Amino acid sequence: AQSVAQPEDQVNVAEGNPLTVKCTYSVSGNPYLFWYVQYPNRGLQFLLKYITGDNLVKGSYGFEAEFNKSQTSFHLKKPSALVSDSALYFCAVRNQAGTALIFGKGTTLSVSS
Amino acid sequence: SQTIHQWPATLVQPVGSPLSLECTVEGTSNPNLYWYRQAAGRGLQLLFYSVGIGQISSEVPQNLSASRPQDRQFILSSKKLLLSDSGFYLCAWSQNTETQYFGPGTRLLVL
Q1: pLDDT digits over B28-52, tens only?
Q2: Residue B88's closest chain A neighbor by CA?
């Protein structure tokens, strides 16, 4: 069965420091992986995706993610965090039927000034 | 460019009352459409998806139903709301089952 795990409920970083939000997945075949961000009382915003190609994917707002097939991971990263990056982050994988996304439970990122 | 709208933004309804939430997409044709519910505590649960007019697939047995009367319109309904129907309802669209783009959501509180 396909699944996504985000092992950390919350990640705290200081502004200007690098950040990592972790995601691991379980899926048959080649994974289609996504990261979304959600601000309070708002819908989800697409950040980036991995379908195929380079393992390092660059996305919106300076975020990037590294696909690691051997570790079945797709961690979200940013070299220098901003206070405005504070939000809820979701990792997702497309299901095997290709009909929907399976989301992780989300990780709250808190960036302090 | 494509945009997705949901209304209402917020809704407070008594238990047992009916529900109708609407989602419309602009700037694209024949999108795949989705309804998700996000309960308190963040997790997203896929409720329904549609690949075309009148074609609805239900992922989880619910007190809810969905309809797609037009290509870019997706409606979530209930005949009688339960307390457990409270949550944040998100509509999303995609092309070719790839990236999904989400609407602003509807916060539903059932009292």
Answers
A1: 999 999 999 998 767 888 999 999 9
A2: A41
